[in-house]
Amino acid sequence: MRTRLLMSDQTLFRSIDVFEIDYVPELFNYRESQLNDLAYQVRPALEGGRALNAVCRGLPGTGKTTSVLRIFAELEQTTKKILPVYVNCQNDRTKYMVFSRIYAAVFGHAPARTGISIKSVMDAIGGALQRQEKSLIVCLDDANLLHYNNTLGDVVNSLLRLHQDYPGARAAVFATISDMDMDLASDLSRWVISPFRPSEIYFPPYDAEEIRGILQERIRVGLYPGVFSVPMLDRIVEQTMESGDVRVGLDLVKRAVLNAECAARTEVIEEDITKAYEQAKHVHLACTIRALSADERLLLRKIAELSQGQTEPLISGAIYTGGEGKPKISYTAFFKRLRKLDALRLVDLIRVQAGGRTSEVVLRYEPEKVVQICG
User: Fold this and answer.
1) Number of domains composing the chain
2) By residue range, what is the domain housing residue 97?
3) Residue 198 is part of a domain; what is its CATH number?
4) CATH number reported for the structural domain that contains residue 222 in this entry
5) How many Cβ atoms from other residues are within 10 Å of residue 321's Cβ?
6) Could you tell me the pTM of the whole model?
7) Taking the CB of residue 282, how many other CB atoms lie within 10 A of it?
8) Which residues are CB-neighbours of 121 under 8 A, at least 6 positions away?
9) What distances in angstroms separate CA 370 from CA 135, 251, 304, 365, one per listed residue?
């Protein structure tokens, strides 16, 4: 049967934005419980008080960010009492950068690039909240990345104690965390935990049927009818389950449809999905590596080099010493970097010693490709 071809001015997309990572869908299924929990945390601010603090914990691609953005969008549409501010900690990874993002939300423009101190930025924010009588809620998305840089405690503490210098200024923190082993109660100082005391909201991984439902809804909204058959959707669901991240599935759908368009076909076939996967898998790797510091990138490259031709399991202690004499950093600092690579799903850490930090380290990508991208 001959496949019908696209005309030169036709497209298969109703709206390609539906498949972007930052898209917030109108119909957001499978996270009703988590949305209700977040709404509960916000309720005191709607009544003129301060919102309750929360930690949204779950693996990457489990709906944490979308849930918070969904609540923030509703707040922006329904009340002037609350100022919600979203901070992407992959991009804003210092205290100054975080508070600059909050300053921009408060005043409509970023602070001056030079000649202004972090204290001046914080004072301006505190004074504005005091005058405007607004309640601030800051989402620190991927807050575990701030913690690896020893910044999270300082940021949270400064936000939650703004009222001490500016009576009436109200601020709360929603932190999303993808490191399932991080224990904020023990990792942060008592000085920080005292005002923080967050409620924890857990986001479990999506199962196959939930992933199917999410992709079906995006396909319904974002594509014209008949572009995706049931067998092709099954293939996307299967590859998404392998990655454990629904964002991979959304990206695969978009790339597969673009491939079909390039071939002037009106429906996606197996070849489009196979090609899309080859395109997508290293794009995600490159984007994640860009979020690393220079030292973290060096560690990842070292793991990749040691993994080449490795037949025995790669152990964290062997990576730490690396046969290079005395290491330049403490094992605690080294293991923090290793945990960050695990949280970003670049490696898998498998504990081999109960109660200890010795772990088997498994690289999730081809070592040669990691070395190439790390540079």
Assistant:
1) 3
2) 32-202
3) 3.40.50.300
4) 1.10.8.60
5) 12
6) 0.80
7) 15
8) 96, 99, 100, 103, 111
9) 44, 21, 6, 7
